[in-house]
Structure formats: C-alpha cells, structure tokens
Amino acid sequence: MASRQRRTRRIGIGRRLAALLVGTAMAVAALVAAPPAATAATPWVTVDENGFVTFTISADEAQSTFGDVTQIVAEGNFGPSANWAQWGLTRRGANWTSVMGPLEPGLYYYQFTADDTNVVKDPTNPTSVASEPEWSTFFVPGDSASLLADVPEGDGGSVETMTYRSTVTRGERSALVWTPPGYDADRREPYPVLYLQHGSGQGYRDWVEVGRATQIFDNLTLRGEMEPMVVVMGDGNVPDFQKELLRNIMREARHDYNISHSPSQQALAGLSMGGYQTLSTLFERPGEFAYIGSFAGFVFGSASDVDAEKINEGTELLRLYTGNVTDLAYNYNYRLMQQFDEAGVEYQFDGVNPDRGHNWNAWQENLIDFMPRLFRDAPDDGPSPGHLPLEAEFQQPPAGTTPTPWITEDGFVTFETTTEFKDAQNVTVWGNWAPGGSWIRVEMSRVGDRWRATVGPLKPGFHYYRLIVDRVPTKDASNPTHVTTEPAWSTFFIPGESARLLADVPEGQGGTVETMTYQSTVAGAERKAYVWTPPGYDPDRAEPYPVFYLQHGGGQNYTDWIEMGRAKQILDNHFLDGNLEPMVVVMGNGNSSNFTRELRENIVPVSLERYNISDDPSQRALAGLSMGGGQTYTVLKAFPGEFAYIGAFSAGFGSATGVDAQAINDGTTLLKIYVGDPTDFVYPSFISSLTVMDQLGIDYEYDGPTPGPHGWDAWQKNLIDFAPLLFRQE
C-alpha cells in the first residue's frame, strides 16, 4: 500500500480568521474519497468485549507499508478530553503491537503514522472517512454510548444523497439527507427540517461517517425523544455560505423532500466553522430559522451590535455549546455570551463539558442534547448534567514566565519547552495519561520560539512524562524533578481525594528515608539501599521491628520506589491512618547476577546490623514488581519459609520444577499476587502461572487485575493494598 507523506492535521479551525476559514474551505471543496481498503487475514485493530483495543502489525506488513522506520504510532481521539493523541506500538518479536484500554464506549477514529510524517490508513479496516482519507473508525459499545449504536436493521430512517447545481461554485454539489422512519413524501403536513453543518476541513459526509448522526437520529426517534423531521447535511466549503444555503441547498431540499418552508419549522446548527456559519446567518438573517445551535462555534469580532429584538422575536431556541479549556472555542464562547448579555440576546448555554475538547465526541453529545429541543416544548433550558458554568476566559501565562508544567486547580496541565527547540520539526509530550496510566503522546504546538501543549483534565495522582523532540527523548529542562534511572523523565503531582495516599503528609509527621551503604560480596562493589523507618522509630526498642524488603523492576534501581512508586507517601499515610504496623522497609538494589545471594548475604545481614529489626521469618516480608516479583518468587521457591509474607506485582511464577508446595504453604502466612489489566504485557504469562500454582497446590490470594498497565500507576495500587496486610495478628 502506498504511504502518504503529510503532517497530521488537527480537527477544527484553530485560530484562523473568518476570511481564512472561508478561503480554505474552497480549497477542500472537492473531497477525495478514501481508497478501497485491502482485505487482510489479520486485522490491525481488534476490540474485546471489555473495551481493550489491541493494535498488531506484523513486521512484514510494516515493512511493505511504511518501509524502514523507527517508530509506529496509532493516532486518534485517544487522549484526555477525547482529543487527538499518539499511541505508540512496540516491536516485539515478529510484530509491532500494543494494548490500549479500557476505552470508554463510543466511536473512535484513527490513523497509523510512522516516523512522524509517514501516514497511512489501516488497510484491514473497511470503514472510511471521505474528508480524512487516512482515517478508519471502530465502535466500542456500552450503555453510555447506546444512542450511538446501530438500531436493528429496518427500524431506522434512511440516508440519501441529494445532488444539486450550485450557483455559488457553478458546479455540481452534494448533501446527505436523513428522513425519519415511516417518512411520507405525500404527508399533508410537511416535515420540519434541520440544516446541519460540518466544520473546517470536513465535508457533508462527516456528520454521518464520524458524528454518528444517523444512529443518533434513529435512536432518539425510536425512543420518542425527537420529533419526526428531515435533516439536511450540506457542504459548507464555499466562499458564500448563506447564498449556498438559501439559494441552493434549501431550494433543492424543498424540491426533493416534503419539508416545511416556514421559519418556525426550520432549524440551523453547525460545529466549529459550521457554528460560525450558523451564528453569522442568525445575525444577518434573524428569523429565518426558529431554532439555532452552535456546537463550539466561533464569532470573529463583536456581537454586541446585533439586532437583539429581531433575533429574540424570530428565534424560538438559540443554544450554545462548548467543551473544556482544550476546546478552541472556549474563550470565543465566553466573549460571545458576554456580548449577548450586553446586547440583550436571549440564549441558552449547555454549560462547559468538563471532559471533552474540540472533537467529535463533544459534538455527538451536543447533537444528542440539541435534537430533542427542536419543534417541541423542551423539558428544561439548563445545562446538561455535570456541565459547568463558563465564568472566565482561559488565560495561560506569557511564554517563558512560569515553571512548567503549569497546573490549574481542575487538573489541566500546560507544558512549555525552552527556546532550545525553536528549530525542531515535531515535538510531543509523552506521559501516563492514557486509560489506566499507560503512556500516550500529545502534540505540542509552536508558540513563538517555544512549543506548548495543554492536556487534561488529568485525574489526581502522580504523573510522569518526557518530551519527544524529533523522535529523541528529552528531559523537560524547566521541571526540576528527576528520576535517577530515567534521566529524560520529569514528574508532577495533582492532589485530590482519590490520590490522598500518594500525597505528602505534613512536614515532620512522616517516617524517615535514609540511605544504607554497604559492600556487596556478590557485586564486588559498594552498593546502596533506601530504608524507611516509621514515625517514632526507636533503635533501642526491646521488641525488634518487623521488616519488609521491597524490590524494584528491570531497568530500575533502589531509588525508584521512592522517586516513582511514592513509597514514602504511601507508608506515611497508611501509618498516620492507623492502617500500618510499625515496620522498617528496605528498598534494595536488585540489579545483581544472583539476587538471592545478594539479598541473603548482603541486604538482610546489613539491615539487621544497622536497624532494630527482627530476624524471625514470621516478622519478615518480601515483595517486588516485575523483575523484582520474579526474584521474589525465586527466593520463595529456593528458601520457603524465610519470609512469611510474600508479594509479587506483575510477575509470573515461572517453572514448577523442584518446587516444594507444602513447604511454601507451611512457611508462608500470606502470598498475595497482583497483575495489571490486559494492557500489562505480562498479563498472559501471569494468567498461565495461576494454573501452575493451582496444579502445585500453592495457597495464594489474588483479587483480580489491578486497573492499569505494566507501570507505576498499578504498582502504587499494589503497595497500597499489600502493606497494610503485613504483620497483622488477625
């Protein structure tokens, strides 16, 4: 399949002027249909019943499609607020692959991009989007997206193509027309009609191919929540939209369909550029349409001098919609409402959708809210449930004036580079804000001689990220945080009740973290470990403290549980909450040719020498993540009973050869095991190891997958659950 060489184009109109909008609309007036998709035995994208999406491209297919490349990403509406983001695929064996999810129910659109500019359509997915030839779509079903689902065959309305001669472009043009179930071309009473417009860079097919308009209309009609009407989706890519609408689209629709000519039975709505066209029509021809909807629409200039009296007299409904601060129309809508208030224009505002940006997920919700209000008495005129007031413009600090990231109280995070990358061609910020805490990239935009991006809303918790500058991982030099084992990473914390156990406790109330240095007989070198002692630790206490040895994973070190795992905060908070037995926690260096020897001959003896801790196996615990979990299992199998409490986070049990299950059961008070969800790449081997342990008769506790990937978001949850279980008499 021939690849397309172009940069990713964002949805919507950005900060273009109105004249530029209309001018560029002419350039895209002739939409090119996507080429037919090839049929392949193995789909590149599969979705399971729980909303987990697997991307798999064989190395041979990748070579024939992209050529020699160093990275492949799936780009789509996967990011926070359903904004465009890049999901990386990893080369494993004979495939480029990854698992994302669980995704919220809804429609997803995506393309594959290699090395930033080599963009292709998924050849194994027959869906297409005419205005975006590289896009494919897939649908994740679920109750929250029931209005976006297909209705049973034969129960819905019909979509037809209406072709007409345009006096504006002097050529043949097309529109899509939806007619309701049971549409009667000879009905005595004409149907009311909605003219529904697309956005910039889009076309008349987008509301059907990406907006799920057909499904929305069908479902609302079958539920009795929408008046039977005809919906005309025209092509707004013209230099004079009002002339095209009034003289061509409406004239042809009235000729071809049994629709009303009365303004009281006519509605006009549009998204982004279509919202601008809708509002401009309202201002210049008030009363032409009794129902007006602007979905993230723009108004350039002032609306303070509009004829409010004529608008109010001729308009039954004027309803405005906007997404959150990542919506390009956010500030425009704030100013518009201020001007409407000043002019005396009567309008409704659906409120700020806190979880959506400038994208189809938002506009689908807008359409769902708008349609039941047409040509009937609406049950209410207030905002949708959960939507927020728009009280001020979103203003970022001037470039170069504030540390990055800049975090708002409601969890929106703005990243900004230094001027060092002013000549870069492509900059993204890559962090753990995909579902479950997986990594996903968000494009940054050039602002002067810097790059910026706003991401959010992010959930409360510990976040980490790095910049990718022309495919080179780069540290955010403006963020003073650091991760010893990952020099390109930076971190930040968003407070909130759901992340309370990850937050710092008041100064002076927590435990103490010290560095324990020792000479390793295994490594033949000086090594270090971190040691947490609880508040009030007494080195002379008559009863030694129980001890918990906590290990890191591959590519990490003893520093990671403190710098990334928030172990100190977790232990401090649990202790202050009364959920943790007073204990000492030793975080050793597991990067050893023989970890079992390193633990038994160095880490444990030195800890016993330096700290007031017990050498009684019943008072000792051992746990680790990933590689550290594997090392924990190795110790358990080789020396059952030396540690009464065992925890393995995201690790498989391994071989059953030589395992004494009875000795493990007799010597272990608690063996608790954890794994992430299907985005954790060890999930398949972990599930297999359960069978091995069951066949051996080993007693263990497993509460099911931890939401999250093979990453710190999951391992923090594991430690939060595991630590309070240790050394409890009950």
From TrEMBL:
The keyword Transmembrane helix does not apply. GO terms for biological process: carbohydrate metabolic process. Residues 1-40 form the signal peptide. It comes from the Bacteria. One of its GO terms (molecular function) is acyltransferase activity, transferring groups other than amino-acyl groups. The keyword Cytoplasm does not apply. Pfam families: Esterase (PF00756). This is Enterochelin esterase. Gene3D superfamilies: alpha/beta hydrolase, Immunoglobulins. It comes from Jiangella alkaliphila. Keywords: Signal. InterPro entries: AB_hydrolase_fold, Esterase-like, Ig-like_fold, Ig_E-set, Mycobacterial_A85_antigen.
